[in-house]
Write a structure and sequence with these properties.
This protein has 15 helices and twelve strands. It is of the alpha/beta class and 309 residues long. It has two domains: 237 residues, P-loop containing nucleotide triphosphate hydrolases (Rossmann fold); 61 residues, Alpha-Beta Complex (CBS domain Like). The strands form three sheets. Strands 6-7-8-3-9-10 form a six-stranded mixed β-sheet, sandwiched between helices. Strands 2-1-4-5 form a four-stranded antiparallel β-sheet. Strands 11-12 form a two-stranded antiparallel sheet. The chain is globular, with a radius of gyration of 21 Å. Helix 12 crosses helix 14. Bound molecules: adenosine-5'-triphosphate. Adenosine-5'-triphosphate binds next to helix 1. It comes from Paracoccus alkenifer.
Length: 309
């Protein structure tokens, strides 16, 4: 668990992070979103003390981070940034092994961990272990960056726009990978993103910042249906709101008995994709694999904020 208490960072008279308090539970994903320059990166970097707070406190698993030497703290916290920050002259395996080596793990344990992570990120170890970062695609480099951040099984992973540079297809894949891996490992994750769709897909709660202040921290559905202020509403994207709401639920949540023509849709498809299929194929209902249907009428109700099930 991370407890952020009245955290403030000033540059001169100006507080760029202003009295922010936030608790993140073990295994939870919180996405930090907000206007440009609102203090998201500064808040993230105060957690691993790449930036020192002017006042306030961060506790990780009950320990006040100010009581630990920063280098020791950083070995307990994974950190992944846009552009990956891989060491160009080191192999993939050496990059991933960075923190385990600093922690003095023995060679066999490090090698086993590197291969385990490469497998987890679907990069076959025999093929990728000895490559240099420049011999990888952008998406592969990004996965190695996250694997490196996770290498020493950190209790907490901080990510700053980790998928910002990826094209939409690889980005969607990277988001799915991250969600799967986070579930498998149970890592607590704090993520800065500019992409509200990404925040909604990944996060249990979304923290919205503006001018250094935390305006609201709540599950996506609440941010969309009960924004704390007009600015939160604007940041959540007013025109995209129905589509965001649909993206939060799956066909399985809305399926009802019945029969419909055409190719079936799988129960784990998002309602947003189901709507797209209805519109594109001109159908009023889609059959669901395994039985039942999802109807355009039900999708419309869900898009207007009705909670499925
Ligand atoms: N070293 C510094 N000295 C003075 N001001 C700084 C310094 N670092 C950051 N700032 C200011 O602090 C504010 C918050 O910056 P920060 O990078 O945390 O914002 P952000 O929300 O991550 O922005 P973006 O979304 O544009 O990446 C900005 O106005 C920035 O100009």
């Amino acid at each position: 668990m991370i407890e952020i208490e009245h955290l403030t960072r000033r540059y001169g008279p100006r507080a760029v992070v202003d009295d922010v308090s936030l608790t993140v539970q073990q295994g939870e994903i919180v996405a930090l979103v907000g206007t440009s320059g609102s203090g998201k990166t500064t808040l993230l970097r105060m957690i691993n003390r790449l930036i020192e707070p002017s006042s306030g406190r961060v506790r990780i698993g009950g320990t006040d981070t100010a009581t630990l030497p920063p280098h020791q703290l950083r070995r307990r916290i994974g950190y992944a940034i846009q552009g990956h920050g891989l060491f160009p002259h080191r192999s993939v395996a050496q990059n991933i092994a960075t923190v385990p080596r600093l922690l003095g793990w023995d060679r066999a344990r490090i090698e086993a961990r590197v291969d385990e992570l490469l497998d987890l990120f679907q990069l076959p170890p025999a093929e990728f272990r000895n490559r240099r970062p420049q011999e990888l695609s952008g998406g592969q480099q990004q996965r190695v960056g996250v694997a490196r951040a996770l290498a020493a099984r950190p209790e907490l992973l901080l990510m700053d726009e980790p998928f910002g540079a990826l094209d939409p297809v690889i980005r969607a894949q990277a988001q799915q990978d991250l969600r799967r891996i986070q579930r498998e490992l149970g890592t607590t994750l704090l993520l800065v993103t500019h992409d509200m769709t990404e925040a909604m897909f990944l996060a249990h709660r979304i923290a919205v910042m503006d001018h250094g202040r935390l305006l609201q921290c709540a599950p996506a559905r609440e941010i969309l249906t009960r924004p704390a202020s007009p600015l939160v509403q604007a940041l959540a994207g007013e025109t995209a709101r129905p589509f965001h709401l649909l993206s939060l639920s799956q066909v399985a949540d809305l399926a009802q008995p019945g029969h419909a023509e055409g190719p079936p849709i799988t129960p784990d498809t998002s309602l947003r994709d189901a709507l797209a299929q209805c519109l594109w194929s001109g159908r009023d209902a889609l059959p669901v694999k395994g039985g039942g249907v999802v109807t355009l009428a039900a999708l419309r109700r869900a898009a207007a904020g009705a909670v499925p099930r």
